[in-house]
Amino acid sequence: MEVPCVRVEREEGEAARRELAESDLIVDEVEIVVEDGWLYIPVTDPDAIPPTFEVVTRDLPTRTTQQMPADILGFEPSYERLGKIVLIDEDDPELATEVADAVVASALPVETVLNRASKVKGETRVRDWDVLAGNGTETVHREYGCEFLLDVARVYFSPRLATERHRVAEQVEPDERAFDMFAGVGPFVIPFAKRGATVVGADVNDVAIDYLNENARRNGVEDRVTAICGDVRETATEYENWADRLVMNLPHSADEFLDTAVSLAGDECVVHYYDIQHEDDPFGPGEAAIRAAAEPEYDVSVETRQTVRSYAPHELNVCLDVRLTR
């Protein structure tokens, strides 16, 4: 069957599939095919595909035997995939069990289904999970050619941010010095290091730091990665005036760390500042906070105002890419 397809390199396939699925652009009746290191994803509307993707026409087989959860349930359930774990968020226990059973019975290559049992809690931003199928909460997640071992019950990780992380990583140049102030298991640190940067990652969660070190080893970049456990305001003093690039992905309280960010910045530094604000003025409060912390020591120039995703009704998760020049 001749259909328009997005063509991506195989290692970037899962992140691309997820992004297209979130926009409901994948043709479910046609197979996704891998050939010669390329993944061909059939799409419904080539004109709606983001310009970052390559669109080609390809003869692909129709799907015959593989069933997805929606085929079994009769409706499209909401879920996220993280390695071989599927994450759902259902308040009704019976519906949660029904969705989990459908996921297991489907063609999805998963081993475990978890249902959110709490909101993100505490300084380490972890949450509780109910295991509905399979066992264990550790998995290996892959995105854009990087591999991350993690335990969803012990560290914070959001697969929804894969596209945003890739957007930022593509800006990194070899020989940069980058500092992730809230590094987690390394979803910014590892791709930065793979692009040739020297990277420091800090986190208050000692479990996340252990995974960060392991993920640096898994991805062959341990010689370019330094992991620091503790509050970055107290543990990073030796890196003052050091960074060419800073990542501040702690949207609810990154403003509390701006003085430290300014102290870490070198003579010229790009700051990726994440925030959650009302849709009426999603970027203004963050820009004002950065200017208050950095001026007059630095000239402040906002290079990109990026909407990452909708966070809650009338609230947006956004990123400001800001250049500081001393």
Please tag this protein with its features.
single chain; GMP Synthetase, Chain A, domain 3; 9 helices; 4-stranded antiparallel sheet; alpha/beta; Rossmann fold; 3 domains; Alpha-Beta Plaits; 326 residues; 7-stranded mixed sheet
- How many helical elements? 9
Report the span from N to C terminus.
58 Å
Task: Please give the domain count.
Answer: 3
Overall mean pLDDT stands at 93
Oligomer: single chain
Please, what is the CATH homologous superfamily of the largest domain?
Vaccinia Virus protein VP39
**Judging by the overall fold, what is the CATH architecture of the largest domain?**
3-Layer(aba) Sandwich
Q: Sheet with the most strands? A: 7 strands, mixed
The level of helicity is 10-25%
Total beta strand runs? 17
Task: Summarize the structure in words.
The protein is of the alpha/beta class and 326 residues long. It has three domains: 2-59, Alpha-Beta Plaits (2-Layer Sandwich), CATH 3.30.70; 69-136, Met-10+ protein-like domains (GMP Synthetase, Chain A, domain 3, 2-Layer Sandwich); 158-325, Vaccinia Virus protein VP39 (Rossmann fold, 3-Layer(aba) Sandwich), CATH 3.40.50. Helix content is 24%, strand content 34%. The chain contains nine helices and 17 strands. The strands form four sheets. A seven-stranded mixed β-sheet has the order 13-12-11-14-15-17-16. One of its GO terms (cellular component) is cytoplasm.
What's the helix and strand layout?
Blueprint: E1 2-9, H1 13-22, E2 33-35, E3 38-42, E4 54-59, H2 69-73, E5 79-82, E6 85-88, H3 93-105, E7 112-116, E8 129-133, E9 138-143, E10 146-151, H4 162-169, E11 177-180, H5 189-194, E12 198-203, H6 206-218, E13 225-229, H7 232-235, E14 243-248, H8 258-264, E15 265-278, H9 284-294, E16 299-312, E17 315-325
Parallel strand pairs: 6-7, 11-12, 11-14, 12-13, 14-15
Antiparallel strand pairs: 1-3, 1-4, 2-3, 5-6, 7-8, 9-10, 15-17, 16-17
